[in-house]
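Annex B, item 7. Sequence and structure tokens for protein A, then protein B.
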Amino acid sequence: MLIPKITPTLTFYLLIIVFLCCGASISLSQSLRYGGLIFDAMAQIDERTDFFKAIKKVRKSGVSKLALFARSRKYLGQNEDEVLELRNSHKDLIILGSPKYFLLRDDLDEDYISTTLENIIKYNYLFIGEILYTHADKSHGEQTLRGERYVDPLQPGTKKFFNELSRFNIPVMTHWEVYNWERDWPRFSKIYSKYRDLKFIIPHMAFGHPHQVEKILSVNPNVYMTISKKEKDQRSYSDRNKASKLGPGFLDSSKMLRKSWALIFDKYQDRLLFATDAHKRPRWKKYRKIIRIYRKILGQLPRPIAEKVAYKNAANLYGVIVE
């Protein structure tokens, strides 16, 4: 077998070919990265996270606006004053929502309702922070006897709260997950239909399948969804049976946007919101990584759609200017 002699000239041309191939690969990678403005439409924080370091990560990530609320795990209003001080120190960046109260069970209680309504005006809250209606136990979180946190949206407390909330014209975050679709979708469908004058945000697309997201959004023009925690399949559930009911993540094994999700982005481009849902310390620590991942996802969308999801929809929903 004859082995061709590698001459200096041939070596030079081979190096040029390798360089051009690498350059094309880098160019393609960069072309798939959205480099525009970002509005993080949902994040939350408590005393276990260093506030200064968290905000530093947000700014270093190139995020223009942050919709933030306090996490009140032990009592109503916990961390509220501290988050208000944080907002006052970063008014160019932070817009505030009401605190997320972890001790609600079965129905919204009177203290939560009256305090939240009072503080909307007092603190100029621009949205109602996440209400945990259904939240399955996660492997890294609290393990409950019933396997979930549960508040029935058809109980009197929710009705009272939403009736009062209608006069404020601010959106409300209703957290629920599709693992018990037959129980929960009919309930939330009634709520979203009854309160057409309210705008609702469902975090994480309820971890649903594309056909479930389609079902929710197609019949409820007053419902928006964040795309947080949807880049990959949700694996953090304690209960495997519940986990098996959830929809797939956005990306396939090649890190490309699945066609079924691309169709959802196209059809409902005016009601999808980018968000990180940074909450516990581990997620805040990887904030910049989350932003990088989602810039790549947004880069796979047509630019006008990417801009709507990245910041324009949130700016319109919360009534703020993003620059």
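Protein B:
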Amino acid sequence: MVSAATDRGFSGAGVGLVRWTALSLMMLVLLRSGWFRKVTGHVSLSKSDWWKCFGIGFFLFGPSHMMFYLSMGMVKQGLASELEGTVILAMAPIFTGLLSYFFLHERLPARRVVAIALSCIGGYIVTIGFAFPSLLGHAKGNLIFGLGVVTECLMGVIAARISRRSSGVAVLSAQMLGGGVSFWVIPLLLPSVLPLSFGSTFVSWLPLLYLIFLSGLVTFTIWYRIVESAPLTQLVVGIALQPPLAALIGWLFKNEIPKQNAVIGGCVILVALALGFLGKTEKVEAID
């Protein structure tokens, strides 16, 4: 949907500014509702934790998405590849698993290590197949995208640590506010790198509705609620579902017949999910 917005007049920074500003304001309004606070298990943050979460949003959350949008712009210039970016994204479970082990002291039993490895392999097979991608021609764009992925993984682990001693939605609210502010500040400091432009028609704003509501408010609220009590090393296995789901959507809505590698990779990912989610789930502990 970001591509759909940029094709209709938005710059990547413009998408980020509208999306995260809208989300941060919506979250502030929703948290005034007793019903929403009850459903999401809201617990107020201490002043120090609130500023930590705001800082996470400003220095990690916002910049990671700026890197994503910047690399997407490079795709149109031939300096990056959307396909290769998906491969890099498929490595997120490995980064998150390692960071969770060190920062959250989560156990990594052999079954979950195998599940994370299989999820990465399955995501690679769906996206590339059984060959090596030609990354050298797109080194700059891939480096920026990869740095964005690592930054977002680090942000998610730090946010999970605070969520487990308070509440996910409280962390998310402060983090979104920090991310929104970063999109007002950083593009103004780097206008040549992150130019701001916006769509001028009603149709050009339609992709933003999806990015704000379904892919933003609903998805992030559910994820942060689950992270409070579930091991992050278990949840990240589900990230590998993105490539096969994209192939499934293309088949259902665009009549694109899934290739053999998509089917095989999807089966590998299903095995990874079974290994990652079946069996006993250990209880996570809050860390001060």
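Comment on protein B: The two ends are 38 Å apart (CA to CA).
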